[in-house]
Amino acid sequence: MSVTDWYAHKSLGEGLYWIQEKFFESSNRANIWLLRGSHQDVVIDTGLGLRSLPDYINSKGLLGDDPQRKNPLLAIATHAHFDHSGGLHQFQQVGVHSAEVDALANGDNFETVTWLSDREIVQAPWPGWRARQYRVKAVQPTHILQEGDVINLGDRQLTVLHMPGHSRGSICLHDGDNKMLFSGDVVYDGAMIDWLPTSQVSDYISSCERLVGLVDSEQVDQVMPGHYHTFGAKQLHRIASGYIDKAGTCPARFSTFAWRTLAGLALRASNTRGIC
């Protein structure tokens, strides 16, 4: 399968593109965002990495042909989980929060939560491909991100907001001038996952309180999430406040404990298999 077959994209205007892996049909399929700036372009999350994302971007001319633009494309993972970080190794410049640098540098497929099944890939990227072969390839980040860091694209800036809970290094990227939030898996319009081995409910509650604060202070109009569709400030407030209300209840705490135990066992089993 060619690179151009594997991906699809849609322009959302003002230098923003929404890219998806067409043949990864799963709730785990992550949104890939390409954001162009006057001096620097950035890819936010990179999918599985089964086909070359840079080749697709270049083949479709999404970066233009301005000879003055010399900065290599910067790929940032909102967190290290496999569906967001699998393609990072394809880029010269890679950014991730400091809490998850080691997971990527070591190719730690436990912390990257690498579980993928054949049924999720409805057309193989190459003959003989099998999900049991899949691993997140080790990559050494060039940009170690922290709370408050500003990624300067020239005509727009992205501020790093460390929002742990889903994972220890989860971040959002906030375009304050345009009131746009790239939220990764911190928040999307679906069931929020707080039961993975490196998830932490108390951190997630604090992060959701912060999201509510962003809405209340009118700093967000549009959310570009890690999964599913985009949504606005009212929905962001509803999702974040709903999580806060529910997460501290006894049934929620018991469910989280049970799922975390099962997830840990499943991940250890799947990531001690031999690679064929």
From TrEMBL:
It comes from Oncorhynchus kisutch (Coho salmon). InterPro entries: Metallo-B-lactamas, NDM-1-like, RibonucZ/Hydroxyglut_hydro. Signal peptide: none annotated. Residues 29-227 form the Metallo-beta-lactamase domain. Gene3D superfamilies: Ribonuclease Z/Hydroxyacylglutathione hydrolase-like. This is Metallo-beta-lactamase domain containing 2. Pfam families: Lactamase_B (PF00753). The gene is MBLAC2.
